[in-house]
User: What shape does this take?
Amino acid sequence: MQQRAFTSLPAVTQQPVATLPVLRRLAGYLKIYRWRLIAVLGLVIAGAATSAGGPYLIGRAIDTAIRLGNGPLLNTIAVALVSIYAVSAVATRFQVALMGSIGQRILARLRSEIFATLQSLSLRYFDQHPAGDLMSRLLNDTDVLNQLFGQGIIQVLGSLFGIVGAIIAMLLLDVRLAIVSLLVVPLMFFTTALFSQISRRAFQRTRESIGDVSAEIQEEITGVRVAQAFNRTALNRQRFAVRNAANRDANVSAIAITSALMPTLGILSSMAIAVVAGFGGYLALHHQATVGTVVAFITYVQQFFFPIQQLANFFTTIQASFAAGDRIFSLIDSTPDLTDHPNAITMPPLRGEVVFDHVSFSYGSRRTSGLPEAGDEPEPELVLDDIVLTAKPGETTAIVGPTGAGKTTLVSLIGRLYDVTSGAVRIDGVDVRDVTRTSLRQQMGVVLQDSFLFSDTIAGNIRYGRLEATHAEVEAAARAAHAHEFIERLPQGYQSTVGERGGRLSQGQRQLIGIARAILADPRILILDEATSSVDTRTELLIQDALRVLLRDRTAFVIAHRLSTVREADHVLVLQRGHIVERGTHDSLLAAGGLYAELYRRQFRDDPAGSVP
Amino acid sequence: MVVLVQLRRALIYLRPYWHIALGSFLSLVIVSTANLISPQILRIIIDRGITQSDTRTLIWACIALIAVAVIRGIFSFTQGFWAEKTSQSGAYDMRNDLFEKIQTLSFSYLDQAQTGQLMTRMTSDVEQVRVFIGNGAVQLASAGVMLIGSVVILFAANWKLAIISLLTFPLMAVTIGIFVVRIRPLFGQVQAQLSSLNTVLQENLAGVRIVQSFAREPHERERYAKLNSVLLQTNLQAVRALSNNFPVFFFWANLGTAAAIWFGGHLVISQQLTIGDLVAFTAYLALLIQPLFTLGFLGSQLSRSAVSAGRIFEVLDAHNEVTDRPGAITLPAVEGRVEFDGVTFRYVGDERPVLSHVSFVAGPGVTVALVGQTGSGKSTIINLIPRFYDVTSGRVLIDGHDVRDVTLESLRSNIGLVLQETTLFSGSIRDNIAYGRPDTPFEQVEAAARAAQAHDFITSFPEGYDTTIGERGVGLSGGQRQRIAIARALLLDPRILILDESTSAVDAETEYLIQKAIAQVLRGRTAFIIAHRVSTVRNAGLILLLDGGTIAASGTHEDLLRDSPLYGEIIDSQFGRQTGRVEESPPTPLLAPTTTG
Assistant: This one.
């Protein structure tokens, strides 16, 4: 069960979860807190005993001291009462503190483990699990566990022991009254459980309706300029009002259910009190019970009200946390499909010769994970088929071809972001699988289409490829990438924060920062995925110039979209459906009149500008 | 007290629903009364039923107990339900107001605002205020009634006993107060720290390629671990605040009960009190706990809600300078003559004008190409024609009418717009094309799509014009989006057309189709184009060369090539690669994937 790979995210938590393994795993996390947990348990029991002892003592006070006029005994009981309350307070204080800190520590540990696991997974995994889905699922699951560890466990335990303590005290006081008053307990429990079932559905609807409202708001805010330009504001208002009203109504009907729960429980509890008072009174009249006992019972019945409600509420949380735990543990347990070979050596400083030796690759295969494919599975389609190529140190290889030809896959194999299905990728004669990934990748640089920036300062983002670089080096790299000028113009210069939140940089500026990052890393081998989105002319020229600096004296693989890049490349590979169909230089390929020439011509066919002298 | 002003203003939103709110409040009074009556019944059961062996009273009192419970149950339902209904209705109106306001906000406000912030105001801020004014107001009243009622009854029952048992009451209030003060900033911190922790996670998921390629896993792990441990520490502080205060609170409450039993017991012994009195008394003491909690909770929410209310009203109060002036007329049938008369424009807060003293006249049917460097004022000119901004000085005239003298609706319905950012809306393709005139018959939608060269790819989808696009639907390529945007503008059959040519890269096929579409669109209209294609400038009837917010030169392509060195320079740098020197590098990507369907 535990090796089950975290390959598919179940849509919702609907299928039954095997509780036992999850419990066992959770228990594993609790193990190091063994002694503290025993202390918590002791404290919980002490707390429950004292809170059950209160009404008992009050009952005794009424019967033996107050009714019989025994002043000194009353004083003694009062002192006992205060001591019991003090013990209860101390017990509660430590039990909340201990359990709270254990819970938070386990959560923190789970978070780091999740993070570490995600980092050890290969790109193959992330290809299958879109970041957005993964993110929302992880947030949701840790949040559920947070509820469980945060207060859930202690409340459940406290409620459970509170109820048990009260039942014991009641049975000790009077068995008949105890049985009569306990009749209401299952009723209360089922009522609460029923309500929480119904309300969960109702709240599901409110979540959907608020989701609709948010989506609409988001869209209309983004598109408000268009709406104004097209005179659509009145109509949009009407449309929004409809969704807004649906949200209001969903909320009102959900609240109708939850508003009914407490009063219903209140009525049940009052009925129990009335039954206890009536039956207890009857017993007292016949001298089979005392007034103090009746008073104590009334208090106990009132005390039931709260814990039962809590237990029923947490019933759903517990269910959800088992499902969440199951998913999180199967993620943590998933075996990384791409690891360093046990005898992997450190890659020596690179010269930069890259050889593809009859490389084939398919995404379906998992041969490298140590788990041989089951023989009866259909042969997965090859994304790359028998690729043979050699790039000498310092050469630029441009790769062109239609979408889906395998260009991105090909360059990803050099840094061993995936493992080849067959054949080998060798750098300076060493198979990339025989060296540690870190030592390999540290000597490589990557510039992607969408220069991904982290929420950090611009300096921090440029420094990403070489953390120990000085500010002067960062600036030099930025200058070489023609990024210095616009960075300086920002109010906080290199210290400006970018990334998701502060990201006011244009597409082109982000690209320049990505190039500066690669220049600073000064890799021997460079992978470049040229962006297709156009930028303004000036920036385009800057980018081309920056790329020229970047490519100089390195072994480079470029997924090319610019004619200038292709023309300056030492080799051009034309890739189609996983095969290298043509290779040569821009001029030789053009002359050959094959696929490349056709693609080239199509680019300029009918371009009216092309005929301008 | 600014805080209370904002909240009081928010309360006004409940006014239309005052009768529901009143119902909730009356229910609350009944519930509180029932709560205060129950201990009295208990007292009767003990004193007269059990102690005096009065079976009839015992039975009737038990029945009364249940009756009171049922009444309390019914009314606590109506109280809660109506309170929610009031607050949801108020929030509904508030959201509608916000939406209406945002829809009409002027572009100069939108330039400053961030989508995320406006979103937050419409969602979580409204919710925060709703919970506070809706439930809070009723709960506050409830807590007050219960507190005062219980205290009054306690003193009426036996003032000496009341004083003794309430000795710990101030301590309870102080403990709750301390807790609220300590936990409030901690909750805020936990939220903030959690969100930065999640940002790192998010970046590592979205940027996994960069992280792995640069072998930065250890660095990222360290970053995450640092934030994780900061969060842990804050959480532990919150646990400490909880564990240090709550047991103490309950201890004070219990101490009050013990004092009541002890002192009251002695009063019973000296026959100044009955046992039933004493039991009822302790029941009233228990009623004091809940209101204190409520007040503590509301106290912790007060400032947050006030801040939320403030942010909502900030948007609602935003000054909108672009509105119809009183007596604005409907723009009569437009011929299409556009004139700028000494127009100067400065963005709010900027010192330097973006346009200064720009004057030109574009006759009906003329295509005007705007050429210039980034920041030269091209976009500003096209934004002033549909009056997205008001000029700082000078006039923009259409057929001789100052755009500020006509209604916005009549002005804008005569202007078609194809912006650089082709914002489409989720819905069907047909809805998107008919965006400006939703009741357009299908034939006209199709005609517009044909003219925009969009018909073919639209019909290649299985559901054709009914294909859903946007977040929940089919993703369109940049070129496809653009042609839908062109169709959308065409459908209005506007006399004046504004077009921003700077497009995202598309493949050659699409590029060709878009140009064909644009050529179609220009026919017979006054058009303003931010030009990025040589064909556009060559065919333009009038080229305005902008430089630093002024018109540096104007005329036809040939005029300017001859007369203006700057024009030649710009044509060389911006369009140069199209003017025959193809071998340098094309404007559109070479060998890009063909994505058109």
Summary: The longest strand of chain A covers residues 354-361. Chain A touches chain B through 164 residues (CB under 8 Å). The longest helix of chain A spans residues 233-285. Chain A is about 60% helix and 10% strand.
